[in-house]
Amino acid sequence: MKITHVAIYRVEGGGLRPVLVEISTDEGITGFGEAGVAYGYGAAAVAGMLEDMAPHLAGRDPSHVRAIWQDLYDHSFWAKGGGAITFAAISAIELALWDIKGKALGVPVHELLGGPVRSEVKVYANGWNHEYDDVAKWARAAARPLKDGYRALKCYPFAHELPDGTFRHVSARMVDDSRFHRAVERVKALRAEVGPEIEIMLDLSGGVCDDQLVRFLDVCRDLDIRWIEEPVDPFNLAGLARTAARTAIPIAVGERVYGRAGFRNVLDTGAVSIVMPDIANCGGLLEAVQIAGMAETYNARVSPHNCASSLCSAASLALCAVIPNAMNLEIYPYFSDSNSYVQVLENPLEREIRGGVAGVSSAPGLGAIIDHKAIAPFKVFDSGATATA
């Protein structure tokens, strides 16, 4: 089997811009992967990176996943040292190759990596209150995911919510006094709203400086917070260690860390209890498995970051199925509320979650059935390359 051509889709809708790559073969088997830059800036850049890499895939055997990954990593030049755009492109290609290999063999990708260690994965809800910018409504919005069976919720207490359901993180490393007190009251109100049995995770996105961070962590001390995510910038290694010394709340980091080397540096601080690789930008499925194995030697668990299309959710579920130290998986169950949201799959995982858990798929490859009609208008590149012997 040989790779014949590569197509790239820059999907846009519902405030997201996922970039998908389709790799086709001479045996009619295709695989899809996703680059983890669905929000913020970077979609055009990673689509360009994928286009640059496409000629180096033509004629290759797609089953040689590791060899292709190593070639792209070694010869892109910019991959060494990490970086969102290069690593997202490599991740998307790697995921598509696993998808092809699983389909060719008629097995889910987790069977190719030792088989599943669990039949279902615990999930948590994010994005359930972005349309509220106060305290009371922001906290009461938790009623919806709880009614839908979620038993764990993540939120952004310092974020500024916008009327269109999107939000902005902190700017300039600080918030004014009113927004600081609003963040404090939000967390208190949320715990009062959901009661003691529901898990709460707080994502700070490295937003505030130490003076406000320390005061905020002190308030959270008695609220049974499951983790504080990105209390400082993920590459502020000294800051991570300093924060861990000041709080008993576990620290989670990783959505903006790339490759094994990046995670090794984070874990070496001794500050991090949960690592959060994004399968679509950390280097792909096998890289994430290796990151999880390394995390286990540091006594840390894994909660994959997942904030993209439902294709990325399917790939992340496969990761959680195969690693023993998986903690839970991030899900945005209400992305589809937006009328402009583009659902790229015919069988999105988000529709199958019951009681806060997702069943591990037994379908071949990544278990994702692409809605070709939905993504067709967003094709921006097709190599049309012909494989050579």
From TrEMBL:
Protein name (Swiss-Prot/TrEMBL):
Mandelate racemase/muconate lactonizing enzyme family protein
Q: Where is the Mandelate racemase/muconate lactonizing enzyme C-terminal domain?
A: 132-250
Please name the SMART domains in this protein's record: MR_MLE (SM00922)
UniProt cross-references to InterPro entries, sorted A to Z: DgoD-like (IPR034593), Enolase-like_C_sf (IPR036849), Enolase-like_N (IPR029017), Enolase_C-like (IPR029065), Mandel_Rmase/mucon_lact_enz_CS (IPR018110), Mandelate_racemase_C (IPR013342), Mandelate_racemase_N_dom (IPR013341)
Q: Which organism is it from?
A: Ancylobacter moscoviensis
Identify the keywords attached in UniProt to this record, alphabetized: Lyase
Q: Which Gene3D superfamilies match?
A: Enolase-like C-terminal domain, Enolase-like, N-terminal domain
